[in-house]
C-alpha cells in the first residue's frame, strides 16, 4: 500500500543519517519501525496484562464478589 509520510525536518534528517549509516533505504527503516511498534507493543501489553492478573488473582477474585 502506498502512503505519504510527513516527518518533522529533524526526524527526516535523523532517518536519512541512519539509512546512510546502515546502508538501507529510509523506506526499509520506516517499514521495520512500524512493524516493530505494532508487534512488540502488543506482545508487551499482553505480557504485562497477564503478569498483573497473575499477581493480583486473589484481589481480583475478592473484588468480583
Automatic annotation (TrEMBL):
One of its GO terms (biological process) is regulation of DNA-templated transcription. It comes from the Bacteria. This is CopG domain protein DNA-binding domain protein.
Amino acid at each position: 500500500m502506498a502512503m505519504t509520510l510527513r516527518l518533522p525536518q529533524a526526524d527526516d534528517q535523523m532517518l536519512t543519517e541512519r539509512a546512510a549509516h546502515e546502508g538501507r533505504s529510509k523506506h526499509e527503516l520506516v517499514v521495520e519501525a512500524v512493524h516493530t511498534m505494532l508487534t512488540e507493543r502488543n506482545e508487551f501489553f499482553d505480557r504485562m496484562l497477564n503478569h498483573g492478573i497473575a499477581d493480583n488473582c486473589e484481589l481480583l477474585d475478592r473484588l468480583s464478589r
